[in-house]
Amino acid sequence: MDLDVSSLNSVLNEVDARLRAETGPARMWPTGFSALDDVLSGGLRGGNLILLTGAQGLGKTTLAVQMARNAARSGRQVLYFCYEHDAQSILERVLALEIGEQNDPQAANLVRVRQAFEGVDNGLGGLAERMAYVRGAIPALERIMDYSDRLHVHNSSGNTTSLTVITNAVEQVWRQTGEAPMVVIDYLQKVKVDGGSDVEDERVTVVVEQLKDLSLDAKVPVLSIVAADKEGLETGKRLRAQHLRGSTALAYEADVLLVLAHKYDVIARHHLVFDAGQAERYKDWAVISVEKNRNGRDGVDLEFRKRFDQSRYEEDGQRVAEKLIDERMFVE
Predict the structure, then answer these.
(1) 3-class SS at 25?
(2) Residue 328 CB coordination number (10 Å)
């Protein structure tokens, strides 16, 4: 009978073999956001469960898709389980952000891209013909082709896509590509639990524990969007680990917890009162708080400019210089 016991000597040999076989930093998937990757010691780490939360409409899916695309572009396999959108919607978002990164003020935005995909742009012909009239689309599509075979999208459903389905899909991509993929779940509370309890806390506990097991077994990062409860979404409050909806297991099982907020909503009041000229500028920025990080620093607040019309964040962010409300962070 096999036992889950390893001597340190066997672990050393396994690490040595893996390092010799891998290219680039071992077991790391870069987010592409340099300031965030620096805090996370290089990016998202294999064997880790990373939770991303924030208020509705704040761009959690935008951020998750951008991280998935960046990981795929770096040469890694990624499997995105999308309970909220279909695969075409993800492609539209990726195309819009690729167009946006060309920094052409006249380039098409996400709305224009969707019009072409849905055939309501008054154009003729198929996708290729319509893309010719979408400014910036052709070079953007050429860039997407460089990594499109590494970014996989699963059309997920809360009625059918269970943990078993997720595991089987991961194994399928693993077999087909020879590499275990980074997993993105959008979002955790939607994952079906076969024969699960009617109590949300109990269902969420099962899901988060099994997603953590998946990250360890496949040695990949599992990035999951998590909904917040009503208390955490109240105006004037800072969303924290205790506000994750469904189970206290979320805060304790997570290796990394990222909290998104509109900068305007979490900036200390005196900045708004005595620096009125800057107040409007704050609305253009989002804050990503690294509230928990088992691999390094936490309690770090980073800011990134929102470009939601292009379905992206600007990746060149920095530490937040201003004081934010409610500085208390999660302590394990």
Answers:
(1) coil
(2) 9
